[in-house]
Amino acid sequence: MERQLQELRALASKAENKRTETGIPRIAMVQGEIPEHQLAAVYDPMVNLILTGSKTMTVGDRTFHYDPATYFVMSVDLPAIGSIHPAATGEPYLAVSLTLDTTIVAALIDDLPAQVRSTLFGSGFSVAPVNAELLDAWIRMLRLMERPDEIAVLSPAYEREILFRVLQGPLGWMLRDIASPDTALARIRVAIEWIRQNFAQQIRVETLAEMAALSVSAFHRHFKAVTALSPLQYQKRVRLLHARSQLIGGQGSATSIAFGVGYESPNQFSREYARLFGLPPSRDLAKVTRNLNAA
Predict the structure, then answer these.
(1) CA dist., res. 173 & res. 177, Å (int)
(2) What is the pLDDT of residue 119?
(3) What is the number of other CB atoms lying within 10 angstroms of the CB of residue 255?
(4) Is the per-residue pLDDT at 116 higher than 50?
(5) pLDDT (tens digit per residue) in 188-222
(6) Which of 230, 224, 162, 134 shows the shortest CA–CA distance to 24?
(7) Are 32 and 155 in contact (CB under 8 A)?
(8) What's the pTM?
(9) In this structure, how many other beta carbons lie within 10 angstroms of the beta carbon of residue 234?
């Protein structure tokens, strides 16, 4: 598989140290050192393939480490804190990703033979080793960057092939379950999407459980299994990540941003901000600014 990885690295070598669009729908790439604050975010559902270096992702109390020739799947929107590392030989971090479109996954599943649904309920993110067939599908997809006139015709087929290879692998149940409305994972996604869109509002867990068509106890249990967070912890994490992004982007004072993301007490906001990011808002902003200027 090393030859395949080398070709993928060459194809993705023009990536920048931020999300770099490829011109192919839902396909992006990234390379090099990424500012730490950009790695603390609410991540969209995706399949991410590590080509060089490694990445650590922490969601709640769970941490996963991704090495070259592994891929990870996020099946729901997750507030996570990441860190990336170059290869031991010095090559910069390099990865490519496919943002998941549930309608495409569902259409693909409809074309496949019926499979047994997962009976165990697991995390909304996990990691697995890549295989040669999946790498081949990624190579065909990324070669389209050099043939942009073929993207509209061929990229849908290659996207389906990538998804098919993931469906056939150890994390396939995650894709099957998000595309099936009767699974607990799909029901939890409904509540997650509502929280993400309405994070500044007060929420009642009973209302979220009703959205998910689950009892309150079952909703709590499944939500924590998927996200490694309780519903209220998830909301708090989304609020703080949005607040940090706005603060660093110069969109207001810490106090105005605190109120804007739903906090009623600036002091409580400052305490919880420092608990997550290690410093209170003003000092964190100064640190990020210093790091950006140094870079």
Answers:
(1) 6
(2) 41
(3) 14
(4) no
(5) 999 999 999 999 999 999 999 999 999 999 999 99
(6) 162
(7) no
(8) 0.90
(9) 28
